[in-house]
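Final report, Chapter 2: Outcomes

The project's central promise was a pipeline that accepts a single protein chain and returns its three-dimensional structure in a standardized token representation, suitable for archiving and comparison. That pipeline is now operational. To close this chapter, we reproduce one record exactly as it appears in the project archive, with the input sequence first and the structure output second.
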Amino acid sequence: MPHRTPYLIAYDISNTRTQARVRRILQGYATGGQQSFFHCWLTQAEYHRLLYILPPQLDPTTDRLHIFRVTEQTETRLLGKAKTALAADAPLLIT
């Protein structure tokens, strides 16, 4: 099984069609998240694929997309209640 690394991906996109396109792409990789924030466990190949397919979807003058790699040294805090993310070894459907 390929090694997967956790990432947090967040975007601020002004155009609703672009938002929908990016959301559909990320939902194929996400194990959890909310409207513009996704928790993804990615292989190196999946990560590089996203780096290839996401930038052409964005308007560089108005849109932002952040990809954060989560490591053991990353300090995280959860405030509030959210859905539990799937385990890293859970099967993923990527279309």
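Archive annotation: Strands lie at 5-12, 30-34, 37-42, 64-69.
This record, like all others produced under the grant, will remain available to the consortium after the project formally closes.
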